[in-house]
C-alpha cells in the first residue's frame, strides 16, 4: 500500500468512525466533529489541562504521526493558560488553538470534542464517564487516563459506552501503562502460556509517601476548593486505592485473566487526619477472591517516612514471578531456578508507547484498541476494594455493580455544593466500617 492509498484508508476510517454507529447514520453535529480535511492531519482535543493532561498532549504530539492540537477544555482558566503555553512553546507547528477554541467551564468538553478526530480525556476521574460517553457519541477515538470512574454508576456508563465504541470501531486506549511496558508484556505472555502453572495467589502493592495537597484559599467556593484539591474527595478521585493502586490491581486481573467475584479488607486514616485531606483513607489492605478460589492480596498506603514498595508478585502451581515498573520481569520455577528475565534497561517509555501505538493505528486506518471494558473492570475492582474497606463488609462484584450510589453532585456549577460538605471546623465526614452505608 503506497502513501496515498494509506492516507485514503485513514480518511475513510476516521470519517466512518464519526458517522456510523451500528449501521445508523449520526446527526450533523457528530459529522461536524468527523475528519473532513483534505490532508492527513489527525486533529486532537485535550480535555483536562492539568499536569497529566499536559503530559498526555506532549506524548501525543511527540509521536511520528501528523498530529495537530486544535482544541482544549478545562474547568479553570489558569490551568488552560499554563498548559497552552507549555505546549505551544514546545510544539509551535503542532499547536493551533486560538482563544475561541480554548473552552473554560464545566461544559467546554462538548465543544472541544466536536472539533477533533481524537480526544485525550485527562480530567479528574469523576468526570471521565460523562466525557467518554460524549466522545463515543460523537464518534471520536479516545485516549483516557485511569481510573475511568469512581463509583458503580460511572462504571456502568463506561461499560455501555465501551460497547458502543466497539460497534463504531473507535480505538480506545486507557492509561494503565504497564499494559504497554515491554517487561510486563513479555513476562505476562509467558505466564499466560503456562510457564508457572495456574496462578493461585499473589501480592500487589503501592506503598508510598503520598501526593500533593492544595490549601483552601479564602475566595474559593466549596466546589472550587474540592476541585482544586481533588485527590482527597471520592467524587473526583475515588480514593488512592482507585486513583493510584488501580495500576497494580490491573496487573492482578491481567495475570488471572479474570476479575474477582468478591473483595473484603480493611483500611483507615492513620497518618493523614487533618482537614486538608478531605474524606479519603491513607491505607487499604484487601483480598481479591477469584472464581477459581485464587486469592490475591492488595495493599496500598500513603505514610511519610515508610518503606516504599510498588510492585507485584504471584505464585503458581509450577513457579512464581516478580514484576515492577522499574525492575526486570522475572519467572522462577518452584526450586528457585530462573526461567526468564526481561530487563527494563532500554525499554521504551510506556507512557509514550501508549500514544505511539494508538496514533499509528489511527494513521493506518486500523481498529486495534478496545481498552475501555477492561479498564473499567479493573477500575471497578479497586472501587469495590474501597467499598469493602469503608464498610467492613465482604463485597460481591455482581451486587456492587448494580449499586445506585452516585457520588457526583446534583449540579455542576461554581456556586453549587458537592454532596460532601465540611462541618463548622472544616472537617469532612469520614467513612466508618460497620456504620457507614456505602452501597
Automatic annotation (TrEMBL):
All copies of domain GFO/IDH/MocA-like oxidoreductase, residue ranges: 185-320
Residues spanning the membrane: none
Pfam families in alphabetical order: GFO_IDH_MocA, GFO_IDH_MocA_C3
Cross-referenced InterPro entries: Gfo/Idh/MocA-like_OxRdtase_N, Gfo/Idh/MocA_oxidrdct_glycsds, GFO_IDH_MocA-like_dom, NAD(P)-bd_dom_sf, TAT_signal
SUPFAM superfamilies referenced in this protein's UniProt entry, alphabetically: Glyceraldehyde-3-phosphate dehydrogenase-like, C-terminal domain, NAD(P)-binding Rossmann-fold domains
Domain Gfo/Idh/MocA-like oxidoreductase N-terminal: start-end pairs: 42-174
UniProt-recorded name of the protein: Dehydrogenase
Organism of provenance: Pedobacter gandavensis
Amino acid at each position: 500500500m503506497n502513501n496515498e492509498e494509506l492516507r485514503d484508508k485513514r480518511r475513510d476510517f476516521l470519517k466512518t468512525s464519526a458517522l456510523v454507529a451500528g449501521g445508523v447514520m449520526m446527526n450533523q453535529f457528530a459529522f461536524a466533529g468527523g475528519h473532513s480535511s483534505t490532508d492527513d492531519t489527525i486533529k486532537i482535543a485535550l480535555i483536562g489541562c492539568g499536569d497529566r493532561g499536559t503530559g498526555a498532549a506532549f506524548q501525543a504530539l511527540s509521536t511520528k504521526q501528523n498530529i495537530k492540537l486544535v482544541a482544549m477544555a478545562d474547568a479553570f482558566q489558569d490551568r488552560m493558560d499554563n498548559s497552552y503555553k507549555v505546549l505551544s512553546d514546545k510544539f509551535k507547528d503542532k499547536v493551533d488553538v486560538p482563544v475561541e477554541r480554548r473552552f473554560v467551564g464545566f461544559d467546554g468538553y462538548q465543544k472541544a470534542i466536536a472539533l477533533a478526530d481524537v480526544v485525550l480525556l485527562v480530567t479528574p476521574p469523576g468526570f471521565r464517564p460523562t466525557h467518554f460517553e460524549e466522545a463515543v457519541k460523537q464518534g471520536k477515538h479516545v485516549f483516557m487516563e485511569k481510573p475511568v470512574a469512581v463509583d458503580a454508576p460511572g462504571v456502568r456508563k463506561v461499560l455501555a459506552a465501551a460497547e458502543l465504541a466497539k460497534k463504531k470501531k473507535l480505538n480506545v486506549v486507557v492509561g494503565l501503562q504497564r499494559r504497554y511496558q515491554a517487561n510486563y508484556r513479555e513476562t505476562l505472555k509467558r505466564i499466560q502460556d503456562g510457564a508457572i502453572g495456574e496462578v493461585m495467589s499473589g501480592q500487589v502493592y503501592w506503598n508510598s509517601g503520598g501526593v500533593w495537597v492544595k490549601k483552601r484559599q479564602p475566595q474559593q467556593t466549596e466546589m472550587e476548593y474540592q476541585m482544586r484539591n481533588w485527590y482527597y474527595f471520592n467524587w473526583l478521585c475515588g480514593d488512592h486505592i482507585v486513583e493510584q493502586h488501580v495500576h497494580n490491581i490491573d496487573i492482578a486481573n491481567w495475570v488471572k485473566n479474570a476479575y474477582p467475584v468478591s473483595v473484603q479488607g480493611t483500611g483507615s486514616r492513620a497518618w493523614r487526619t487533618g482537614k486538608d485531606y478531605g474524606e479519603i483513607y491513607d491505607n487499604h489492605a484487601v483480598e481479591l477472591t477469584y472464581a477459581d478460589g485464587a486469592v490475591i492480596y492488595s495493599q496500598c498506603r500513603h505514610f511519610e517516612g515508610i518503606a516504599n514498595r510498588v510492585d507485584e508478585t504471584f505464585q503458581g502451581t509450577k513457579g512464581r514471578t516478580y514484576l515492577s515498573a522499574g525492575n526486570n520481569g522475572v519467572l522462577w520455577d518452584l526450586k528457585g531456578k530462573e526461567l526468564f528475565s526481561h530487563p527494563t534497561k532500554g525499554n521504551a517509555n510506556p507512557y509514550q508507547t501508549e500514544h505511539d501505538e494508538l496514533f499509528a493505528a489511527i494513521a493506518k486506518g486500523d481498529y486495534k484498541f478496545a481498552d475501555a471494558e477492561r479498564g473499567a473492570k479493573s477500575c471497578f475492582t479497586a472501587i469495590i476494594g474501597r467499598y469493602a474497606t469503608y464498610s467492613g463488609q465482604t463485597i460481591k462484584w455482581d451486587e456492587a455493580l448494580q449499586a445506585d450510589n452516585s457520588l457526583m453532585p446534583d449540579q455542576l456549577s461554581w456556586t453549587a455544593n458537592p454532596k460532601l460538605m465540611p462541618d463548622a471546623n472544616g472537617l469532612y465526614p469520614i467513612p466508618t466500617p460497620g456504620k457507614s452505608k456505602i452501597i
